[in-house]
Design brief:
- It contains 2 helices and 4 strands.
- The protein is elongated.
- The chain has one domain: Ribosome hibernation promotion factor-like (Double Stranded RNA Binding Domain).
- The chain has a 4-stranded mixed beta sheet, with helices on one face.
- It is 39% helix and 33% strand.
- By secondary structure, the chain is α+β, with helices and mostly antiparallel strands.
- The chain starts with a strand and ends with a helix.
- Helix 1 packs parallel to helix 2.
Length: 102
């Protein structure tokens, strides 16, 4: 499971990178065999103006095919990452359940 993290208009500090990796690995550890790649993009939408503008968008590429994309926006970047990880866990669970049923 490859993990790639990109930042737009946000400095990717070691603390932030560790938080993203820890949350996603915790949320998706039980699906590790079914996930090929995870791409994370954190963005500050409004820049220095502040506000409800920190976004975390996660794309998971499933094996053998398929993608799950989720996002969350919040005033606090860590909270946006946490919400995106929670949504991602539910979405991947739902997608894999659909695959088993067909």
């Amino acid at each position: 499971m490859k993990l790639g993290i990109r930042g737009r208009h946000i400095a990717l500090t070691a603390t932030l990178l560790a938080h993203v990796e820890r949350r996603l690995r915790f949320a998706l550890s039980r699906f590790e065999q079914k996930i090929r790649q995870i791409a994370v993009q954190v963005t500050d939408l409004n820049g220095p103006r502040g506000g409800f503008d920190k976004q975390c968008r996660v794309t998971v590429t499933l094996s053998p095919s398929g993608k799950v994309i989720v996002g969350a926006t919040d005033a606090d970047l860590h909270r946006a990452i946490d919400r995106a990880a929670d949504r991602l866990e539910r979405s991947v669970t739902r997608e894999l359940k659909r695959r088993r049923e067909t």
